[in-house]
């Protein structure tokens, strides 16, 4: 075990949760996810649903208890040195270049990418974020907020639960997600900047809307919304259809991404996984030729 992993285990082992009891991690007074069927639970769910209906994005401020936020930040800072940094250029779909397309096509707009990710298989079982990710009460709450009968953890052994590491003065460029929705937990707010910026429903299943995507890439932000997240905030976002990025930040920004899917077989694409995480598994190779039902790029 390396030093950073040992530090991480030591910093949050005391907060290990048992079963479905999230009382030591989540502010259950504001978000009573342990009381399904209650009026307060239904009110919390409906509040999130209302936000998602507006533009596919919902913010749950101070979701993690205030007295746990320091430990949450410490564990992500301890794990951050294990991130893989892909210093390359990617298009919004994280696909390979296609010379058959016009030179000004959005799929040929490549942006510099300097972010790092701590992969799922590097995050210890004792981590607060891993406890939250696998907790059935939390998963039920997220499914209810998304108006889904059930959600599943990713089958992907590398993605699914990852920590996005943004060093000082870097940004996460415009992109679409592989999954229809993503749950993110801010674990370290940067000193300045680092706003989450997104274009609500800029594309739909079977309709790429390349014209508007190109406008945004060229600097027209009339379709762009901006959101600031603080340490301990939870966000639900439908990133498969809404192009998004994280603006340049001063000071390190750490955000954990909790990936769930409507089916139990969700895998990242071969090209995306290789570029973002620096490695693939046989599972990724086997899934490579399976076509997404929404027929969208990426």
Can you tag this structure with a few keywords?
seven-stranded antiparallel beta sheet, 26% helix, alpha+beta, 298 residues, four-stranded antiparallel beta sheet, 17 strands
Strand and helix layout:
Blueprint: H1 3-12, H2 39-55, E1 57-60, H3 69-79, E2 84-85, E3 88-90, E4 111-113, E5 116-118, H4 128-134, H5 136-145, E6 152-153, E7 161-166, E8 172-175, E9 182-188, E10 192-193, E11 196-199, H6 210-217, E12 225-227, E13 234-237, E14 243-246, E15 249-250, E16 253-258, E17 260-261, H7 270-277, H8 282-287
Antiparallel strand pairs: 1-13, 2-5, 3-4, 5-7, 6-17, 7-16, 8-14, 9-13, 9-16, 10-15, 11-12, 11-14
Helix pairs in contact: 1-3
The biggest beta sheet reads: 7 strands, antiparallel
Large-scale geometry = globular
Q: What strand order characterises the main sheet?
A: 1-13-9-16-7-5-2
Structural class: alpha+beta
Measure the end-to-end span: 35 Å
Mean pLDDT comes to 89
Helical fraction: 25-40%
Characterise the protein shown here.
With 298 residues, the chain is of the alpha+beta class. It has eight helices and 17 strands. It has helices spanning 3-12, 39-55, 69-79, 128-134, 136-145, 210-217, 270-277, 282-287, and strands at 57-60, 84-85, 88-90, 111-113, 116-118, 152-153, 161-166, 172-175, 182-188, 192-193, 196-199, 225-227, 234-237, 243-246, 249-250, 253-258, 260-261. It has a seven-stranded antiparallel sheet with strand order 1-13-9-16-7-5-2. Strands 8-14-11-12 form a four-stranded antiparallel sheet, with no helix packed on it. The protein has a two-stranded antiparallel sheet with strand order 3-4. Helix 1 packs antiparallel against helix 3. The longest helix has 17 residues, at 39-55. Residues 10-19 have low confidence and may be disordered.
């Amino acid at each position: 075990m390396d030093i950073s992993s040992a530090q991480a285990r030591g910093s949050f082992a005391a907060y290990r949760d048992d079963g479905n009891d999230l009382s030591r991690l989540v502010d259950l007074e504001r978000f009573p996810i342990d009381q399904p069927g209650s009026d307060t639970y239904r009110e919390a769910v409906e509040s999130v649903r209302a936000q998602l209906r507006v533009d596919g994005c919902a913010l749950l401020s101070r979701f993690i208890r205030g007295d746990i936020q320091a430990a949450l930040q410490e564990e992500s800072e301890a794990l951050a040195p294990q991130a893989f940094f892909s210093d390359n250029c990617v298009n919004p779909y994280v696909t390979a270049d296609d010379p058959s397309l016009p030179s000004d096509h959005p799929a040929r707009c490549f942006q510099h990418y300097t972010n790092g990710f701590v992969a799922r298989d590097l995050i210890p079982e004792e981590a607060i974020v891993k406890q939250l990710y696998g907790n059935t009460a939390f998963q039920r709450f997220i499914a209810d907020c998304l108006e889904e009968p059930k959600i599943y953890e990713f089958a992907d052994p590398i993605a699914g639960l990852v920590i996005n590491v943004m060093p000082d003065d870097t940004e996460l460029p415009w992109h679409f997600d592989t999954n229809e929705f993503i749950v993110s937990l801010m674990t370290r707010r940067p000193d300045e900047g680092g706003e989450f910026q997104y274009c609500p429903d800029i594309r739909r299943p079977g309709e790429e809307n390349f014209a508007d995507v190109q406008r945004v890439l060229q600097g027209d932000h009339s379709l762009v919304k901006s959101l600031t997240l603080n340490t301990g905030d939870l966000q639900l976002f439908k990133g498969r259809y809404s192009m998004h990025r994280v603006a340049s930040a001063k000071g390190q920004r750490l955000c954990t991404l909790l990936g769930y899917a409507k089916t139990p077989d969700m895998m990242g694409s071969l090209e995306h996984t290789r570029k973002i995480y620096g490695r693939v598994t046989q599972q990724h190779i086997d899934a490579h030729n399976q076509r997404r039902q929404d027929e969208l790029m990426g």
